[in-house]
Amino acid sequence: MSKLVLSGDTSGSVTLESPAVSGTTTLTLPTTSGTVLTSASTITPSTGTVTQASLATGVAGTGPAFAAYQSTGVALTAATYTKITFQTEEYDTNSNFASSRFTPTVAGYYQINGAWQFGSGGTVTSCAIYKNGTVYKEGAGTGGTAGYGGTVSSLVYFNGSSDYVELYGYASSAKTPLATINATYFNGALVRGA
Amino acid sequence: MNLYEKIIALYPSLVEQDFRTCIRLQNDADEKGSYIAKWEHPTLPRPTDEQLGAV
User: Fold this and answer.
1) Residue B22 and residue A82: Cα distance in Å, rounded?
2) What's the pTM value of the predicted model, to 2 decimals?
3) pLDDT of chain B along its 55 residues, tens only?
4) Which chain B residues touch A77 with a CB distance below 8 Å?
5) Chain A residues within 8 A (CB-CB) of chain B?
6) Domains of chain A by range and CATH?
């Protein structure tokens, strides 16, 4: 092995050392001033990977995101918080949505949104995010003779393993949601790492 | 007759708002069907399965 020792300005030194290789390897230095990455850098030197925690302000990560909607109407039982089922996915970037349940495998804070609509008949309605099987946040509902439904939106923290959310709807009399992509839906995405 | 209707038959004084506040009926879209997830009514006792079955 060959070594090139550079003495420090006042003391110490920096040693450049070639590894034991049989071929010829060229290391090209950049043409601008800077600092070579080290193991203490926020970028993993061996892979160049930047962790979610090291992203600069204003840079979005590639955390999980999903969107699904009810494509076949499934009735809500009267005066009963009923789990809304979603048969069709628009996207599910990390395969974390299954059985109408979102269980992200990346810990952090997620923006979760949901809504349902029905077509006609006056009733009192609501829409709720259930976390781990119990009500977490409940949104306002509206119900006139022309229909409507309920919406809910909230930030939700997930531990990245067991935490999950589902969407529940409430109607004082039995209603079947409008099964369209724009009327009865459930979506969310990671907005901040743990 | 669904669970809500049975409870109303047992307790006609209940109003719709009670089912969004002190009482919560729930249906998880599974084989279990509707059930009482919460009963915190200040005066009326939670109905028993026998009472509901007899309605």
Assistant:
1) 17
2) 0.79
3) 999 999 999 999 999 889 989 999 999 999 999 999 999 999 999 999 999 999 9
4) 2-4, 25, 27, 34
5) 74, 77-85, 100, 124, 126, 133, 135, 168, 170, 172, 174
6) 65-193 (2.60.120.40)
